[in-house]
């Protein structure tokens, strides 16, 4: 009699995710952010999900690909918003405010503090050049919008980008989502940081900034 392929999933704990791929990403995010990349094996990830190691490779060819997918998940939604902003009639102040708020919102919407992955030495590896390119594009966009408000030579020009990422140090990494994604409101921390980004540039806050940002995110 042929042996069954794979093994039953664990009943407890059960990873969050609508698909096996999402469960793998959830387990990987926890392990990478709590014990690092080098100390995490694909065997540990598979065991945390409750699948065979071979089954993991059906969804991801390597641990590196899992890490890259998590990194890109923190950048790509903001790049999509940037494209929508570029097609809108929003002022530079509103565009910058929306980007800060949206990036903070995204980093608050995950169970695990995946922003911490930026800080791991392995993130600088050439293996993740695709992520580096996207991150540079996003940082340059923050820079250009700030420069439109205060001038290219102003020493504050790169502060909004770092203010947006400061949310990484403001949230826990305990498996609890600080702020679920919502179509009707922004997390108060995201609003606070976006306000702070414009305040540090001495730029006036757009009166309709929250509603317009939510509308652009929805688009």
TrEMBL record:
One of its GO terms (molecular function) is DNA-binding transcription factor activity. PROSITE patterns: HTH_TETR_2. InterPro entries: Homeodomain-like_sf, HTH-type_TetR-like_transc_reg, HTH_TetR. Keywords: DNA-binding, Transcription, Transcription regulation. Residues 18-78 form the HTH tetR-type domain. Gene3D superfamilies: Tetracycline Repressor, domain 2 (1.10.357.10). The lineage of its organism: Bacteria, Bacillati, Actinomycetota, Actinomycetes, Mycobacteriales. The keyword Nucleotide-binding does not apply. Residues 41-60 bind DNA. It comes from the Bacteria. Pfam families: TetR_N. This is Transcriptional regulator, TetR family.
């Amino acid at each position: 009699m042929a042996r069954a392929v794979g093994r039953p999933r664990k009943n407890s704990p059960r990873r969050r995710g609508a698909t096996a791929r999402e469960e793998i990403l959830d387990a990987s995010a926890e392990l990478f952010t709590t014990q690092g990349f080098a100390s995490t094996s694909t065997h540990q990830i598979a065991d945390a999900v409750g699948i065979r190691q071979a089954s993991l490779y059906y969804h991801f060819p390597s641990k590196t690909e899992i890490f890259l997918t998590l990194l890109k998940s923190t950048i790509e939604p903001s790049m999509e918003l940037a494209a929508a902003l570029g097609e809108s009639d929003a002022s530079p102040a509103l565009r910058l405010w929306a980007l800060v708020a949206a990036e903070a919102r995204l980093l608050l919407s995950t169970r695990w503090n995946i922003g911490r992955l930026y800080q791991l030495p392995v993130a600088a590896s050439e293996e993740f050049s695709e992520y580096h390119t996207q991150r540079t594009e996003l940082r340059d966009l923050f820079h250009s919008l700030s420069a439109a408000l205060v001038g290219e030579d102003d020493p504050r020009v790169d502060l909004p980008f770092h203010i947006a990422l400061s949310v990484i140090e403001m949230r826990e990494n305990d498996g609890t989502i600080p702020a679920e994604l919502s179509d009707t409101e922004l997390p108060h921390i995201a609003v606070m940081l976006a306000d702070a980004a414009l305040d540090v540039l001495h730029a006036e806050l757009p009166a309709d900034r929250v509603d317009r940002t939510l509308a652009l995110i929805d688009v």
